C-alpha cells in the first residue's frame, strides 16, 4: 500500500479513507486486466495479510458483486466497513497475534458467521498449516466461513497460500455466471 495520512504505508481500511484511492485502484487494475486478458469473471477473488486483510474485508463490504470469495489473514473488520452480502470467507489468524489483536480477529470471524447465516455447529477440517485448528461453519446458501487458527503471532504461516487457493477453487461468482449465459 501507499503512504496513508499517518505516513505509514498501507491499504485503506474504511470507506472514503484517502479518497477511496485503493478501491479505485482495484477497479482500474481489474478493468486493465479485462482489456488485456480473458478473465473468468466468476473466479475473481480477494485476499490479503494484516492491513491487506483489513482491506479484504473492505472489498467484501464495498465490492461484493466483483469477488467470488474472500481470504483474510490476520485481518479485522472496521465498523464503518461492515459487509452485508453473504460471501464465502476463509480467515486465518494467530492466537498470539498482538499486532492485530486476536480478539478483533475473532470478532471479524463472528461477524462473518452472522452475515453468512452459517450453522452454529461447526465441523473440524484439515489444514496444511502446522498446528492449526481448522473449523468449517457450513451454510445452506453456499457461503461458508472457514477459520484456521494457528498458535503463532502476527504471521503468514507456511502453507497459507495453498490453503487460500484450495478454498477459492470451490467457489464461483453466481451472479457473473448467470450474467454470462
List keywords for this structure.
5 helices, single chain, alpha/beta, 181 residues, 6 strands, globular, six-stranded mixed beta sheet
Characterization of this structure:
The protein has helices spanning 21-36, 51-62, 102-116, 160-168, 174-180, and strands spanning 45-49, 69-73, 89-94, 123-124, 133-137, 145-150. The chain contains 5 helices and 6 strands, in the order αβαββαβββαα. It has a 6-stranded mixed beta sheet with strand order 1-2-3-6-5-4, with helices on both faces. The chain is an alpha/beta fold and 181 residues long. Strand 4 and strand 5 form a beta hairpin. The radius of gyration is 16 Å and the shape is globular.
Task: Describe the structure concisely for a colleague.
With 181 residues, the chain is α/β, with parallel strands linked by helices. It has helices spanning 21-36, 51-62, 102-116, 160-168, 174-180; strands spanning 45-49, 69-73, 89-94, 123-124, 133-137, 145-150. Residues 177-181 have low confidence and may be disordered.
Helix percentage range: 25-40%
Distance from first to last alpha carbon: 36 Å
For the secondary structure, the number of strands is 6
Order of helices and strands: HEHEEHEEEHH
**Could you name the ranges where pLDDT drops below 50 across 5 or more consecutive residues?**
177-181
Order of strands in the sheet with most strands: 1-2-3-6-5-4
Relative strand content: 15-25%
Instruction: Summarize the main sheet.
Output: 6 strands, mixed
> Averaged pLDDT, please?
93
Radius of gyration of CA atoms, rounded to a whole number: 16 Å
> Helix/strand-derived class?
alpha/beta
Number of helices: 5
Shape: globular
